[in-house]
Design a protein that fits this description.
By secondary structure, this protein is mostly helical. The protein contains six helices and no strands. The longest helix is centred in the middle third of the chain and has 27 residues.
Length: 149
């Protein structure tokens, strides 16, 4: 996944949004088809207690989240530069939406695998919805238009 995200964030990457979509699809495919990958993600998302003994685990989770967030931010900035997203998009908020939506969906699926008939199809729909939101919502602008609060 990291390799695909790095492709999406490269300054020379064409179609960063398409690259992110392919990355989302790849992660969903791995979740469904690769039991080892699924187990690692289960541990990352579900199995951690906030104790002094788990400090290093929590730091690793924070480091991982920061690393992924940095890659998402770069990909969205590239998409902005290429005109795929509005120039005044609040990138930090968009990254939070992407991260929370995508990993929240995976967490839901791990807890309740029957929740989605096809998580890959659901992820594609979620991806499209997020980018429509990024393109159209006045609440995701650095300076919202007058009358929007």
């Amino acid at each position: 996944m990291r390799e695909q995200l790095e492709k999406a964030v490269a300054d020379s990457a064409e179609n960063p949004i398409g690259q992110l979509r392919r990355t989302h699809e790849c992660v969903m495919q791995e979740m469904v088809d690769n039991p080892h990958y699924r187990k690692v993600v289960e541990i990352l998302l579900l199995k951690c207690e906030h104790t002094s003994e788990a400090t290093h685990i929590l730091q690793n989770k924070r480091d991982w989240r920061n690393s992924v967030s940095d890659l998402l931010q770069t990909a969205l900035e590239n998409a902005k530069r290429q005109g795929e997203l509005p120039e005044d998009l609040d990138i930090a908020m968009a990254v939070d939406i992407m991260f929370s939506s995508f990993w929240g969906m995976i967490g839901d699926w791990l807890v309740s695998p029957g929740r989605y008939q096809d998580i890959r199809q659901h992820a594609r729909k979620l991806h499209k919805a997020m980018f429509d939101l990024f393109r159209c919502s006045p609440h995701l602008r650095m300076i919202p238009p007058e009358g929007v609060s």
